Amino acid sequence: MEGSEELESSLLTQPWASVCFGESTFLAKASFRDTGYILLISDLSSIWYESANAEAVGQRSKELNKRLTVHVSSFLHHLYNLMCPLLAGQQDAATSFSCHHTASSLSLHVKSELSGLPFYWDFHCCPAPLEMVSRHLVRPLIRMSLALQCQVQELTSLLLQKDAEIEDYRESGAALSRDRLRTEPFQEETFQQHFMHETLPQVFGAGEGQKFTSALRQLYVAVTQQEAKQVRKRQHSEDTEGPAPTAETTGHSCLLSPSQEDGRTSSIEGTMPVSSPAQKPRLPVAKVKPKKAKGLFS
């Protein structure tokens, strides 16, 4: 995998971040390599992107920064250091960003310093193709929804098991030591009705959804990592000369340094296992011999 394909592959597993330019809020993600960069940005009405190789970066840097004569890789590394704090919600006060967008284009202007001299950069973005939109937003969100549904079903099953366990303790003569801890048996239908009528309106009242929470960012990365693994497996099976190169090659990926990527992969993959819906427990559960209960029960 070379050039823009490598960049887009590395971009896939980067989470979306909420960024503000003036009064406008956007979702954005980016990946930087020694061979160039790729930026994806959306206001949830349109999605724009720019993919620039090292040659294009070198040419633009000469036009915008005539007093700076540094290697292209230094420009890319500096852009990486400027963009990552922005995407992490920790924008440097010494760096300013401004944005101008229309239906057909988006320009992101950056002003900073490099080696004590003014540094300027313009990202020139055009509308993203439908396949890119689907790969980076639509398909991951659908899979996230399925993963969250599996999680809800597993939690529902666990609650029913806990209710069965508590009922068994009560029938064995155990009682709560603190009555304020008493809960009603979980009713799935009642819970769903409350969610639809009470919780869901609050979610829509919180804004336009142009922000991924930390947990959703982790889930997005876990989902896209699974897709990237499947793509590499297919490429490996089709390649008779050896395994296909992966996105984890030498370079820069926003939000994490190369040394951190492996740690994030292992920790995030264990955060949200996507499994088949859990079966509801069989009731009643087997009785246990009466004994002195521990914990919440006296």
Report on the structure:
This protein has 298 residues and is of the alpha+beta class. It folds into 2 domains: 129 residues, Beta Complex (Dna Repair Protein Xrcc4, Chain: A, domain 1); 136 residues, no CATH class. The chain is 45% helix and 19% strand. It contains 7 helices and 8 strands. Strands 1, 2, 3, 4, 5, 6, 7 and 8 form an 8-stranded antiparallel β-sheet that branches. Strand 5 and strand 6 form a beta hairpin. Helix 2 packs across helix 3 and helix 4 crosses helix 6. The longest helix is centred in the middle third of the chain and has 42 residues. It is elongated. The termini are far apart. 22% of the residues are buried. The C terminus is likely disordered.
